[in-house]
Amino acid sequence: MEHEVFMQRCLELALKGLGFASPNPLVGSVVVHQNKIIGEGWHKKAGEAHAEVNAIENVKDKSLLKESSIYVNLEPCAHFGRTPPCSDLIIKHQLKKVIIGCKDPFSKVNGKGIEKLKNAGIEVVINVIKEEALFLNRRFFTFHNKKRPYIILKWAQTQDGFIDKKRGAHQKGQNWISGESAKRLVHLWRSQEDAILVGAQTAINDNPSLTVRELKGKNPIRLLVDPNNRVAKDWAIFNDEAPTIHFHKQDPYLKEDLKSFQISGDIIPQVMAACYQNDIQSIIVEGGAKTLSHFIESNFWDEARVFNSNKQFGEGLSAPKLPIIATGNDSIGDDQLFTYFNL
C-alpha cells in the first residue's frame, strides 16, 4: 500500500505540468526515506529539468539519497535530449530503489531506462497503479503509439437535443447554450491542450478567437479546416493572439506567420498527419455538428465532453450522436457535463 500512496503523490505532482510539459509527458517524482517524503518535483515545462531532477534537488540532506527510494510515474529517461538522462542522475546519487508507474513507449526510452538502472545494481519495481499512470499520460501515449494526437470532442446541447438554432443565410453570432461556469471550464480545457480545431462554418457563424481569455494560461494552436477558403482573412481566427494552421484545398491567402496545409480527399487523416509532424499531441475539437460528426463517424476520437443545458430551442441543428454510454456525469453550474471515452 505504501507504494500506491507515494505513486499517487507522483500523479498529483505530474498533473501540475498539464498544458506546459508537452510534447514531453506529465511526470511527477518523490524521494522517500524511511517511509517519509524528503523531496518532490515535477516536470514543469518542456526543455526544463525533468521530475526526477527536481525531486532530487528538493532533498535538503543529499547524504540521505543513498538510503532512499525514488518514485516516478513514468520510466526515467535513458537518452540525451534537451536535458541529460534521469537514469544517470539516479545512478550517480546511488538511490537504492526506483519505483515506476509504467514504462515509457517513446522509442528512445521504452525499457532502456529500466535496464540501465538494473545494470547499475538498483532495485526496480514497475507497474505500480499502472492504469492510473497510463491514463494520466493518455495524450503522450496516443501520440507515440498511434502516430496522431489525442482527440477530445466538446460541445453543448439543449435539453431537446440541439447544438445550434436554425439559422438564416445571413444570421451570424454565437447562440450560447451553456452557462458562465461551463464557459470558464472550457477555457481551462483549452489551456491544457496543444491545439483547438473548428470547421469553416463554425468560424463563419461565430467568428471565435478560440483563446483562453477567461483565465491566465497559454492559448492553443488554432486549427481551421477550411477546404474552400470560405473564412474571411480578417476573421478573429486569423488574428495575432495565437498561431493558426489553415487546412485548405485551394491556394490560401497567406500571412507570413500563418502555416497552411493543402488537403484533398479524406480530410481528417491528413490533418492528423500534419499534427503529428508538428508535435501536436492533443486537440480539442469545438467544431459544429458536421465537423464533430465527421470525427465520430471516422472513429478519430478518444474522449468527448458534452454539456447538457436546461435550455430548449424547439428546432435547430441536431447535436451529434455518440455510439457509447457516458462514463461520467458532473454538475457545472446549471449544466450537466457528460464524459465519454472511446476505449
Provide the low-confidence segments as ranges.
Answer: none
The biggest sheet, with number of strands, parallel, antiparallel or mixed sense and barrel status, is: 9 strands, mixed
Residue share in helix:
25-40%
Query: What coarse outline follows from CA principal-axis ratios?
Result: elongated
pLDDT averaged over residues: 91
Supply the number of helical segments: 10
The order of strands across the largest sheet is 11-10-9-8-12-6-13-16-15
How much strand content do the residues show?
15-25%
Order of helices and strands: HEEHEHEHEHHEEHEHEEEHEHEEEE
Oligomeric assembly: single chain
Number of strands: 16
Q: Structural class per helix/strand content? A: alpha/beta
Q: Please give the radius of gyration in angstroms.
A: 23 Å
In whole angstroms, the N-to-C terminal distance is 28 Å
Summarize this structure briefly.
The protein is α/β, with parallel strands linked by helices and 343 residues long. The protein is 27% helix and 24% strand.
Layout of secondary structure:
Layout: H1 2-14, E1 28-33, E2 36-42, H2 51-57, E3 69-74, H3 86-92, E4 97-102, H4 112-119, E5 123-125, H5 130-136, H6 138-146, E6 150-157, E7 162-164, H7 180-192, E8 195-199, H8 200-206, E9 221-225, E10 244-248, E11 259-262, H9 267-277, E12 282-285, H10 289-297, E13 303-308, E14 317-318, E15 328-332, E16 335-341
Parallel strand pairs: 3-4, 4-5, 6-12, 6-13, 8-9, 8-12, 9-10, 10-11
Antiparallel strand pairs: 1-2, 1-3, 7-14, 13-16, 15-16
Helix pairs in contact: 3-4
